[in-house]
Specification:
Elements: E1 17-18, E2 23-24, E3 30-41, H1 45-52, E4 63-65, E5 72-76, H2 89-99, E6 104-113, H3 119-124, E7 138-140, E8 143-146, H4 156-166, E9 172-176, E10 189-194, E11 199-204, E12 207-212, H5 223-230, E13 238-241, H6 250-255, E14 259-263, H7 267-279, E15 286-289, H8 293-303, E16 310-313, E17 341-348, H9 353-365, E18 372-381, E19 384-392
Parallel strand pairs: 8-9, 13-14, 13-16, 14-15, 16-17
Antiparallel strand pairs: 1-2, 3-5, 3-6, 4-5, 7-8, 9-10, 11-12, 17-19, 18-19
Length: about 425
């Protein structure tokens, strides 16, 4: 059965776009496939499709009418099936024992246009093969956030148009053009397709978050991590979020009855933190601050005497350096049982990122951490890892002394509560 193999088809590279005008000619995308089809009586169609469902064609209709016999149907197989060798033995046996002699093997020419092609299939016909094609993006509400390499930038507007066409929920495609600002965690960007509207809404951990993506930090890839950490908090506990952004930890925690003190240095993050707290109706449990992270913790512990159960430090580029906040924060006679559990994020480029991130944390604290949990949150890039260290602040911290100058905050920053 199906002994003859079809020749492979490779679409030719055409002039699909004008690079000068940054426009895409969608009408020129016509790709022809020579497919294997199985012609069967109409009453056998469902049975055969069920047997071959993982090998059927899906770009257009899987089952078409036989133009020569209205009592039969043609089941199209995907373009990878060129002959019987491409099917498992049990599928060939099915035809030999059950479908013959009713089943007949035919070839069918199918033409696929722009609308039926995936973004990757379209761009492979435009971008030269020697360049690394990137079609992945971070989805932030209606915004697609891309990080395009320099060599692919001449095609950025075409890439943006294709991404927009193939993802109907998107209205804007942006490309990152600069590094993340170390203070407010924002970055320079350009709109490469769609509307220039950066005010968006994201749903995560049963909460709604609204913000201007150009003004604040948000990473949709951290959604699972946000949920994992929030699950560690119990209603009635007190959480201090030192670098809270627009509230991906703080808002869902407050929504479940955790008492949250959330702080961010960026005034726009502070604005949207308050907005999101109101949007999710959890302001009863959420207090918002706009100040330096170290001063925020001193205010809570030393001035208002709040017993903090958990501290979240989600500023991977520099959060570990802020661990010195806890050196000298508590009086030497403090009961060690009231010391908080720390959840601190950082980056590592080491061959052993687990050992490296623990060494980083211990170096800043000036003590060893005997009981620590270290999580590899995600691989940021080749050889670069985002890590989380979770540990109960050791009692040894009560015997350490703060370094001179470590308690200084930016003079231009006035606290807001």
């Amino acid at each position: 059965w199906l002994r003859r193999r079809l020749g492979t088809f490779s679409p030719s590279r055409k002039s699909f776009c004008s690079m000068e005008a940054h426009t895409l000619d969608r009408s020129k995308f016509q790709t022809t496939y020579n497919l294997v089809g199985v012609k069967v009586p109409t009453q056998l169609t469902s049975k055969v499709v069920s047997q071959l469902k993982e090998f059927t064609w899906h770009k257009t209709r899987t089952v078409i009418n036989d133009p020569e016999d209205d009592t039969k149907r043609i089941i199209l197989l995907n373009s990878n099936v060129k002959g019987s060798d491409d099917l498992p033995e049990e599928k060939r046996s099915f035809f030999d024992k059950q479908a013959q002699p009713e089943a007949e093997i035919v070839t069918q020419t199918v033409t696929v246009g722009y609308d039926q092609l995936s973004a990757e299939e379209v761009l492979k016909q435009i971008v030269p093969p020697e360049l690394e094609l990137v079609t992945s993006y971070e989805s932030v509400g209606h915004i697609a956030h891309m990080n395009l390499r320099d060599e692919i930038l001449p095609y950025k507007y075409i890439i943006g148009q294709v991404i927009l066409d193939k993802n109907k929920i998107l209205r804007s495609v942006i490309n990152k053009t600069g590094e993340i600002n170390s203070v407010y965690r924002t970055f320079e960007m350009e709109v490469i397709a769609g509307v220039n509207d950066m005010v968006t809404e994201v749903h995560e951990t049963n909460c709604r978050f609204q913000f201007n993506f150009a003004e604040v930090y948000w990473n949709s890839r951290l959604g699972s991590e946000h949920a994992r950490v929030v699950d560690l908090f119990q209603p009635g506990q007190v959480v201090a979020d030192m670098f809270c952004g627009v509230g991906p930890f703080a808002v869902p925690a407050a929504k479940k009855g955790v008492v949250v003190h959330a702080n961010d240095l960026n005034p726009r993050s502070y604005h949207y933190l308050q907005h999101n707290g109101k949007l999710n109706k959890c302001m009863k449990f959420l207090t918002c601050y706009n100040m330096d992270g170290r001063q925020f913790m001193r205010n809570l512990v030393q001035q208002t005497n709040i017993k903090v159960d958990h501290v979240v430090m989600n500023l991977p580029a520099s959060a570990i350096s802020f661990l010195d906040t806890f050196v000298g924060l508590y009086a030497p006679d403090t009961d060690p049982s009231v010391l908080p559990t720390i959840h601190c994020y950082g980056f590592s480029n080491a061959a052993d990122p687990v050992a490296d991130i623990q060494a980083q944390a211990e170096a800043v604290l000036g003590i060893s951490i005997p009981d620590i949990t270290i999580i590899n949150v995600r691989n940021v890039s080749v050889g670069k890892f985002m890590m989380r260290v979770t540990f109960k602040l050791p009692a040894a911290i009560l015997n350490t002394t703060a370094k001179e100058g470590s308690d200084e905050e930016p003079k231009s920053k006035k606290p807001k509560v």
